[in-house]
């Protein structure tokens, strides 16, 4: 079947022909006619099969008639990442060049002012990530009451990134009468539940088994030890005919470390991960697309939907935590019917995750050996991991489940041998017993010092007494041997609020009456008229 046979308009067909395409992919062939008819569509197809064009092409035809109003877009496309949103915007520019449609791209890392100006002019197509979309909506810069078409792309990735609450809120703000297009590479139960809630009598289209890799990708896995992974990767890069390649890591910091390592060994490599500023991410991806960078070390931010023609290899430096991510990663190569090669480096600790991936794709991934490196037994991973888990549980039980205060996480001292612990136990007990007499040398709380005379009260003398008690009563261990009780302003020892030896508790001041309340009141000077004042009634100084 040709594009001209599925009902697209002449302007769209011209743009498709200019882009070099004549035949639609299976997902495009089945989805485009239903979208043109205004039906809700639930599309499930593996990555790299042309899902983006399956909704952009008919949307351009549908939106060709009509005009957008300020701050009221006519269609909304939600994408999980900035790169995917930017790629959809590029498709609209390519396929909609013969139409006068206004488009706005709302992604993080860009200026709010420029995006608001586009919205105020009115846009026909709004492409956004959920976070920036809700930011502008809460500011009052977007009105969603005129949305006619809603597209939720890469719904399973939305689920993984935690965007589902935002998606549910956005859908609740849209008109009930609309057309909804729901696309996903996999269809887990959570995505099925969302599809049932968002779509109305949808046309379900599945062109390939869920989460199945493309048949044009040759897969292999190399069993290595964790400390040999970088050397194994360099060996593969030198022995394989690598034109350009994605190298995936699980963590962002590993992306930066691997990029530095490859650069030191003379490889033309770049880095791409979510912590980079948007301008740097866009620049790096464009350099990779133009061939200025041959190797792109990246996280899963580049695993979905990024369409770069002619990628020859994909290397999984880390085995992905989720089996679905493996399918998306290797889908960056072997696109549009071309052949590609995908290699994965697995350690004994990855045996369980590797088994989940092979169960998902329905076949075993061929094993290869790296020259000069020892191939470990994958069964070692489970046994070593079990021993580590058991020892960590026993250590935490022995320590009472608490960490030493002031120590960093994971830096606990190694456990001493049992013989050493047995020898150290009596010594520790003797040290405890030696400290006990020191505690018993303190005077009883009920003891009182002789009360000084009232007229001889002197605060400085009390301070000196306290200072002598601090300096003179020190033992070799630094503990006060017989420190006298603290005294109040009258020279009496201070008492606790409740003392068992003093009988019933007195509520109020008790014996500790403040000194200012014991002073004798002096007469107040009488007011004397100025003309009769002779100084005789002046109080004593």
UniProtKB/TrEMBL annotation:
Signal peptide: none annotated. GO terms for cellular component: cytosol. Residues 216-381 form the Helicase C-terminal domain. InterPro entries: DEAD/DEAH_box_helicase_dom, DEAD/DEAH_RhlB, DEAD_box_RNA_helicase, Helicase_ATP-bd, Helicase_C-like, P-loop_NTPase, RNA-helicase_DEAD-box_CS, RNA_helicase_DEAD_Q_motif. The keyword Transferase does not apply. PROSITE patterns: DEAD_ATP_HELICASE (PS00039), HELICASE_ATP_BIND_1 (PS51192), HELICASE_CTER (PS51194), Q_MOTIF (PS51195). Residues 432-499 have a biased composition (Basic and acidic residues). Belongs to the DEAD box helicase family. This is DEAD-box ATP-dependent RNA helicase RhpA.
């Amino acid at each position: 079947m040709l594009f001209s046979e599925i009902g697209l308009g002449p302007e769209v067909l011209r743009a498709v022909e200019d882009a070099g395409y004549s035949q639609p992919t299976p997902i495009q062939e089945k989805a485009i006619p239903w979208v043109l008819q205004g039906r809700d569509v639930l599309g499930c197809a593996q990555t790299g099969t042309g899902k983006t064009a399956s909704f952009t092409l008919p949307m351009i035809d549908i939106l060709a008639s009509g005009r957008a109003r300020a701050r009221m877009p006519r269609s909304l496309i939600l994408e999980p990442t900035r790169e995917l949103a930017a790629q959809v915007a590029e498709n609209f520019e390519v396929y909609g060049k013969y139409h006068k449609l206004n488009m706005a791209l709302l992604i993080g890392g860009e200026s709010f002012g420029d995006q608001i100006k586009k919205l105020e002019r009115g846009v026909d197509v709004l492409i956004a990530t959920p976070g920036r979309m809700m930011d502008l909506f809460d500011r009052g810069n977007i009105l969603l009451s005129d949305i006619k078409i809603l597209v939720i792309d890469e719904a399973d990735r939305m689920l993984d990134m935690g965007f589902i609450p935002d998606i549910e809120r956005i859908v609740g703000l849209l008109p009930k009468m609309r057309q909804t297009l729901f696309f996903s590479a996999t269809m887990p139960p959570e995505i099925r539940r969302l599809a049932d809630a968002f779509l109305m009598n949808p046309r379900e289209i599945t062109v390939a088994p869920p989460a199945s890799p493309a048949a044009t990708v040759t897969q292999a896995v190399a069993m290595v030890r964790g400390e040999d992974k970088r050397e194994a990767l360099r060996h593969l890069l030198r022995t394989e005919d690598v034109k350009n390649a994605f190298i995936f890591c699980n963590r962002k910091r590993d992306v930066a470390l691997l990029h530095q390592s490859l650069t030191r060994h003379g490889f033309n490599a770049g880095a791409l991960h979510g912590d980079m500023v948007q301008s740097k991410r866009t620049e790096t991806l464009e350099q990779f697309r133009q061939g200025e960078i041959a190797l792109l070390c990246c996280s899963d931010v580049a695993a979905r939907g990024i369409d770069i023609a002619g990628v020859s290899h994909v290397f999984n430096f880390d085995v992905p935590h989720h089996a679905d991510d493996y399918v998306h990663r290797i889908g960056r190569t072997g696109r549009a019917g071309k052949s590609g090669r995908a290699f994965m480096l697995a350690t004994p600790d990855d045996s369980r995750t590797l088994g989940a991936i092979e169960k998902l794709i329905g076949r075993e991934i061929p094993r290869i050996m790296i020259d000069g490196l020892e191939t470990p037994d994958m069964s070692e991973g489970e046994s070593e991991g079990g021993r580590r888990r058991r020892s960590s549980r026993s250590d935490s039980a022995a320590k009472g489940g608490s960490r030493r205060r002031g120590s960093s996480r994971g830096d606990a001292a190694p456990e001493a041998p049992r013989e050493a612990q047995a020898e150290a136990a009596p010594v520790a007990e003797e040290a405890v017993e030696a400290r006990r007499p020191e505690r018993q040398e303190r005077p009883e709380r009920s003891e009182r010092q002789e009360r000084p005379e009232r007229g001889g009260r002197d605060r400085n003398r009390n301070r000196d007494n306290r200072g002598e008690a601090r300096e003179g009563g020190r033992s070799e261990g630094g503990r006060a041997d017989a420190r006298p009780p603290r005294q109040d302003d009258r020279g009496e020892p201070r008492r606790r609020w409740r003392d068992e030896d003093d009988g019933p508790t007195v509520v109020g001041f008790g014996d500790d009456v403040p000194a200012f309340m014991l002073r004798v009141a002096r007469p107040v000077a009488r007011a004397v008229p100025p003309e009769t004042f002779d100084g005789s009634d002046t109080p004593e100084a």
